């Protein structure tokens, strides 16, 4: 196994993960969604009965081997690895050992069940698994930041069709995470208020980009959305890290996330997407300036020359128009055929 390595771009101070092991993972899926008639695949390492095809699990929700509901396993082809040997020193370039943790959250025993079609109580179960693993990671001395994400579809980076999410815990704070914190901290120093709470209040007041709101969460298309139908789900309770979210909050988030994904499906069909849970870096949990949030990024456009050269996105749709379509979308569920696993038990 070739060890991963972290390298910093001296021109931007951004870190890049050099992970040769990732080249050995399965080829990207050629279709964005499992066949609804295939509730089990003998070739899928994430299906029940094939547990020996994955590394040993670190979390199981469900009592019996044949009746697990959620499993968490180390990624077989990790971008980062624990106990990574140090890399060679360099007099100009800055690098570090590719030390970290890369886990897969297998969301369901059913091969053919997309997240948006799962019962809300099961989505809440998945979110609690996220929280449990993030909490454990933050207790490790060699972890400074944790990112939880989901890739759906070929253009979003999916390599296996079975529904799953991932967690990456890094020994450094990514430049983007640090930058977002600094922007929020400056706003707090200047106004005494939380930036993300102010954004939510502004969206509620404007109304034109609001998708839905309840006691616990506000969902909206951001004012400067970088891609069509981008959505944010932001909690009402001030909490800088997802690891501190309550069970009640996660139950409400499960409903909001499911509805947002169903709205997206109604507007765009079976579109590829990513979602990311943004949290503060380790050590900032006691501060009030940051607020964790979930971002959904549909893959309807591809960055081209201008985006690559400027890091400035061109969005071909007005966020207000996207929000109106999402608000008016019918929330319907496609029932898989032959589903044999009871997720709400």
Instruction: Determine the mean pLDDT.
Output: 88
Count of distinct strands: 13
Percent of residues in beta strands? 15-25%
- Order of helices and strands, N to C? EEEEEEHEEHHEEEHEEHH
**Terminal-residue CA separation:** 41 Å
Helical amount: 10-25%
Radius of gyration: 20 Å
* Sheet having the most strands: 10 strands, antiparallel
Sequence stretches where pLDDT stays below 50 over 5 or more residues: 28-34
Class by helix and strand content? alpha+beta
Number of helices, counting only DSSP H or I runs of 4 residues or more: 6
Approximate shape: globular
* Major sheet strand order: 3-4-6-8-7-12-13-11-10-9
What do you see in this structure?
It is a single chain. By secondary structure, this protein is of the alpha+beta class. Helix content is 25%, strand content 19%. Strands 3-4-6-8-7-12-13-11-10-9 form a ten-stranded antiparallel β-sheet, sandwiched between helices. The longest helix has 22 residues. The protein is globular and about 55 Å long. The termini are far apart. About 2% of the residues have low confidence.
